[in-house]
Design brief:
Blueprint: H1 2-6, H2 9-28, H3 30-42, H4 46-74, H5 76-92, H6 100-116, H7 120-130, H8 135-164, H9 166-187, H10 218-229, H11 233-263, H12 268-293, H13 298-315, H14 326-338, H15 343-354, H16 358-387, H17 391-410, H18 424-430
Helix pairs in contact: 2-5, 2-7, 2-8, 2-9, 3-4, 3-8, 3-9, 3-11, 4-5, 4-6, 4-7, 4-10, 4-16, 5-6, 5-9, 7-8, 7-16, 8-9, 8-12, 8-15, 10-18, 11-12, 11-15, 11-16, 11-17, 12-14, 12-15, 13-14, 13-15, 13-17, 15-16
Organism: Dactylosporangium salmoneum
Keywords: Membrane, Transmembrane, Transmembrane helix
InterPro entries: MFS, MFS_dom, MFS_trans_sf, Proton-linked_MCT
């Protein structure tokens, strides 16, 4: 009982956020599992199905900065609850669709808006409000929530789709997202002042007062943050690297790994289990990345992450086979550790360069991540339709990742003299 009383409320808020992220992550695992079932039932090309995935990925990113601004105005709890309802509706209504435009409207638009409202800008906002100490570590843990959702849902969805049809898998995702809503409304809190406490690690003398609502509307604040941040080289370097990050994770591996493995004779549940293993190793990798972000220069971390990812992708075409070979397991482990390890250092750099407006700016950086993912998802599907295989996509992705490493190291040229002192961009954004 004594230990429970001593637990800071920030940890409970983080735990609820983790569960919410896991619930929303169910849909993130769905496209790769359902591409072939949808193709077989409706005859839609992989390019058409990939277009719906691309719109989802694009909205997932574009919504993030506006959602971050909405959270500043209306609170975390309300925005997250509505987002989960959208995810549930978008996934559940797919069981009634008959035309490809309905897939685009549901998978692309509804679920894209819902998941985008719970994207990593939500993580940046929550950790910025509730944590002073352990901020990087908690960012890593919450980011891993998406990977945990993938780990939980992927094998289950693959088996459900194979044994009971893709509609059962879609309804399972809808139910999981909806089930988290009561917990969010019950336990998620917007600010430490709601409970009369300070953020974790903040001095006890700090008054637990909630910040006043922004003077401008959410859309105006989000667009103003983009306008000011876009005048700095650091923003474009971060956005460029993160666009490549999205292209080589969600857009490529997350969407097309299962179909690519299927092309080589591997059963879809087996391929889904491999993708789930990426999620398992990603949990460890992202938490470790958060720990390292609290202790090392984030520019160096990003450089290493992108370079190692690029090398692994260059080897991937030679590893596919009808059965799981040891070399593929090595790739899964290596790539999994690096999957979203880029998030904690990127969030930290947005705070460093843009101060209090860091979460909103990170929303725009994350939008570039999803823009890259959207392009990669569609382009890879089109390449597969035209070339008959995915080899070219893996090689291009490997080269782009190495380029992202170079962009990350170029951030040293834009580094301001004192990390603790706000930059002009940060001062302007916070005003």
């Amino acid at each position: 009982m004594f230990l429970v009383k001593r637990l800071h409320p920030a940890w409970l808020v983080a735990a609820v956020a983790f569960v919410a992220l896991v619930g929303a992550a169910g849909f993130r695992a769905t496209p790769g599992v359902l591409i072939h079932p949808l193709h077989d039932e409706f005859g839609w090309s992989l390019g058409t199905i990939s277009l719906a995935v691309s719109i989802n990925l694009l909205l997932y990113g574009v919504t993030a900065p506006f959602a971050a601004a909405l959270m500043e105005r209306f609170g975390l709890r309300r925005v997250v609850a509505y987002a989960l309802v959208l995810v549930s509706a978008g996934s559940g209504l797919t069981v009634f669709m008959r035309h490809s435009w309905e897939l685009i409207a549901l998978w692309g638009v509804l679920v894209g808006l819902g998941t985008g409202s719970m994207a990593l800008a939500f993580v940046a906002t929550l950790t910025g409000r509730w944590f002073v100490k352990r901020r990087g570590l908690v960012t890593g843990v919450l980011t891993a929530g998406g990977a945990a959702g993938q780990l939980v849902f992927l094998p289950v969805l693959a088996l459900l789709a194979e044994d009971h049809g893709w509609r059962t898998a879609a309804l399972t995702v809808a139910g999981a997202a909806l089930a988290v809503v009561p917990l969010v409304l019950w336990r998620l809190r917007d600010h430490p002042s709601d409970l009369g406490v300070t953020a974790y690690g903040a001095p006890e003398s700090d008054a637990p007062a909630a910040p006043p609502p922004p003077a401008t509307g959410a859309a105006r604040r989000a667009l103003g943050a983009l306008r000011t941040a876009s005048r700095t080289p650091a923003f474009w370097l971060l956005a460029g690297g993160f666009a490549i990050c999205g292209a080589t994770t969600n857009g490529l591996i997350g969407t097309h790994f299962i179909p690519a493995a299927h092309d080589h004779g591997m059963a879809e549940p087996t391929a889904a289990s491999l993708l789930a293993l990426i999620g398992l190793f990603d949990i460890a990798g992202t938490i470790a990345s958060g720990w390292l972000t609290d202790r090392m220069d984030s520019r160096i971390l990003l450089g290493w992450y992108y370079a190692l990812r690029g090398l692994s992708l260059l080897f991937l075409p030679a590893l596919f086979a009808a059965t799981v070979r040891p070399s593929m397991v090595v790739f899964i482990l290596f790539y999994g550790l690096d999957w979203v390890a880029t998030v904690p250092p990127t969030v930290a750099l947005c705070r460093e360069y843009f101060g209090a407006a860091g979460p909103v700016v990170f929303g725009w950086v994350f939008a570039s991540h999803q823009f890259g993912a959207a392009i990669a998802a569609t382009a890879t599907g089109v390449l597969r339709d035209r070339l008959g295989n995915y080899d070219a996509a893996w090689y291009v992705a490997g080269g782009l990742s190495i380029g992202a490493a170079a962009l990350s190291l170029m951030l040293f040229k834009s580094r301001h003299p004192a990390a603790k002192a706000p930059t002009p961009a940060a001062a302007a954004l916070a005003a």
